[in-house]
Design a protein that fits this description.
The chain has helices at about 55-60, 80-90, 100-110; strands at about 15-20, 20-25, 25-30, 35, 40-45, 65-70, 95, 115-120. It is an alpha/beta fold and about 120 residues long.
Length: about 120
């Protein structure tokens, strides 16, 4: 799926997504990423949904986003409540969706000027 961005915004945007990759600012990545609207693109050490640990969510809290979108791969899956405890304690809003929907939603929120963090699982082909 090819996504289009506003090239004048200066924000990180998803420009494509498909099996085994996500394209950010026209650069493909084949691993999970943490992506903020105005910050660095960081490799996220998660190979699959089953790998998620409390530390992965603590890493997100440290980035202090307004909202976090969590893309769980090819289908929507909900992490155990104990994994989300740090996000809830820090009063950071979050949405959980499949990775394809998370990419689309991220671009919409970035277009609105929101401080959003995308935590995206990219499943291998």
């Amino acid at each position: 799926m090819k996504l289009h961005s506003d090239p004048h915004s200066g924000a990180n945007t998803i420009t494509g997504y498909g099996p085994g990759y996500v394209e950010i600012n026209q650069t493909p990545y084949s691993h999970a990423v943490l992506l903020s609207s105005d910050g660095a693109i960081t490799a996220w050490p998660v190979d699959s949904f089953e790998d998620l640990k409390v530390d992965h969510f603590s890493q997100m809290v440290g980035l202090k986003p307004e909202l976090i979108l969590i893309g769980t791969g090819s289908r929507q899956r909900f992490p155990a409540p104990e994994l989300l405890k740090n996000l809830i304690s820090a009063k950071i809003g979050f949405e959980i969706m499949d990775s394809k929907a998370a990419c689309r939603t991220y671009n919409i929120l970035v277009g609105e000027g929101r401080q959003v963090l995308l935590a995206l699982i990219v499943e291998p082909v």
